[in-house]
Amino acid sequence: MDESVKKIVIHPHVPSQTTELFVGRHLLSKELLSAARFVIVVDQKLKDLYGDALAHCLRADLIAIPSGEKAKSKQVLDYLLEELFQLKVGKDTVLVALGGGAVCDLVGFAASIYMRGIAHVLVPTTLLAMVDAAIGGKTGIDMPFGKNLIGTIYPPKAIIADVETLSSLPETEWINGLAEIIKIGLIYDADICDDIEPFTKNPALVLKAMQAKIAIVQQDPLDRSLRRMLNFGHTIGHGLEAVADYQIPHGRAVAIGCLAESHLSWQLGYLSMQDFLKIQALFHRFSLQLPKGYTPQALLHAMSYDKKKSLGKLRFVLIDQIGRALPFDGAYCRNVDHEELKSTLDWMEEQYG
Amino acid sequence: MDESVKKIVIHPHVPSQTTELFVGRHLLSKELLSAARFVIVVDQKLKDLYGDALAHCLRADLIAIPSGEKAKSKQVLDYLLEELFQLKVGKDTVLVALGGGAVCDLVGFAASIYMRGIAHVLVPTTLLAMVDAAIGGKTGIDMPFGKNLIGTIYPPKAIIADVETLSSLPETEWINGLAEIIKIGLIYDADICDDIEPFTKNPALVLKAMQAKIAIVQQDPLDRSLRRMLNFGHTIGHGLEAVADYQIPHGRAVAIGCLAESHLSWQLGYLSMQDFLKIQALFHRFSLQLPKGYTPQALLHAMSYDKKKSLGKLRFVLIDQIGRALPFDGAYCRNVDHEELKSTLDWMEEQYG
What we know:
2 copies of one chain form a homodimer.
Chain A: E1 6-10, E2 19-24, E3 37-43, H1 47-58, E4 61-65, H2 74-86, E5 93-99, H3 101-113, E6 119-124, H4 127-133, E7 141-143, E8 146-150, E9 158-162, H5 171-188, H6 190-196, H7 203-219, H8 234-243, H9 250-267, H10 273-282, H11 296-303, E10 315-316, E11 319-321, E12 324-325, E13 334-335, H12 338-352
Parallel strand pairs in A: 2-9, 3-4, 3-5, 5-6, 6-9
Antiparallel strand pairs in A: 1-2, 7-8, 10-13, 11-12
Helix pairs in contact in A: 3-4, 4-5, 4-7, 5-6, 5-7, 5-9, 8-9, 8-11, 9-10, 9-12
């Protein structure tokens, strides 16, 4: 193994299966993988930049799909599955996802259901995909009636995070990924939050965030307790995305969500005002604004479809200090009724409306 | 636990998850399950017969879907997923499949992908579903371009096999299930084949076949070696179904498939002529006829999409005596080239064309 490549082995829930994570530079031209056959699924915008070279390196077929969140649609899934069938892809083939979180989620899902499961490898090319979508095996597509409501938990055979691909990322994409990094810091690793200020496309921080997410996921691969803390900021974040009809970047929705759920943690008496103000400062580089169409009622309605809901009650992940989510008897979320939410919703409107 | 109910605990691949199998009579009105909420998905033909009573017993919502293989279509899957969403089904809900193999396969698949996996229970009401579809966690739907090509391996929380439901089954449905029972006997348990002759809707034989399949599946839940022996008769069987455009009962296709693959086992020098003739006798109650449109070429083309195929070669499960599939270095299937297949394909046409 080349010294410039860091390799970490992740142990998901299926004992016979492990995920190899490679982090380093210029990894797309290195021979890190072996299989009878590879098929690469690439964001069409990245085909020329990385796709053709990787296809050459792996002697792979290449399937280009639409860019962005559109990739996670039923239409693209159907197209991809039929392409795989037409290419006579069998159980000995490894699918490779090359692109952002949407491509990773789509390809993971396709791999998990094609012929009842074939192997796949994720090659995330955005900060958000590296620290979030690629880690933990969650896959999914969006349905006309709800985002990410259809999916599986299906760990990849390998993840290749080439930090070199981040150098060409636009600033807005950085900010997008940064929201998830801050979130991981807030719930699990205060050090990460300390490192945020001087953040200037620092690969060490990327690795640190990936490792924190891996540590959480390995303790609860099937999302039954500890792992739920990763939903911090996402009950409100997902609700805002639905209110905005998904015309708001995920990172910005999560940023507002993290702030609002920190406010809620303070309101309910768990978090100190001092920590809350520190958290607000962490997000100073974000342009936080509630989406058009936002009302507390619209948000409450959107949140009523939240996946964490139990017996009709909304549930929130809460923190009691920077770097620590509250366990609540091991469930890592707590019922919050509308009355308890009210002042946080009002505060959101006042601050960011 | 009532003495008339036999309970077996199955251990699938996910350590934290087990399947409870209940076998007995009049189980649909017994309180065997507990959950925050149940939603029953029922074959519309069984709604009056069993659906309403079970819904009452479980205080469940009821979703009726089309009968037969149509249930396993993308259209019905989309309908079901949207109904679940509209009913605000959350992670605390258990889906219950009530019907034949198609309903079990569809509901298992829907449960495996809805919100990245919710729990489900199978209540098979046909012989084929009890001994085959319900055991082993395979789920799936048919796509316009291929049957069962999309699916997951996702074990149910419980299986309830009420043998009383079999008493109303038509004779053709019995024969359908019998083919899979004989198959299990041929590859794994010669005793089952000995019990076939006096077979007259014998619940003890149903349980024996279920137990044999459970024993196989538990040794290889993810279908990587031993479990593949269950594909005996299915390389040709699936091919025949495709040639017949799925207008042939699965049991009949599997019956011809088992006979033909026994013939192949003999041709290749593994199986004795004496055993082959015994196997032929086992199928004397089946009306075996090749589907319209059958030609060796059409079958070879259809088989070229087989899921077991590796590096472009067709692979077959083979037996060397009644009750024993050949291991072939633990792969439980062997490459067979077109030349080796020829005399078996000719024999099929001669006998059943």
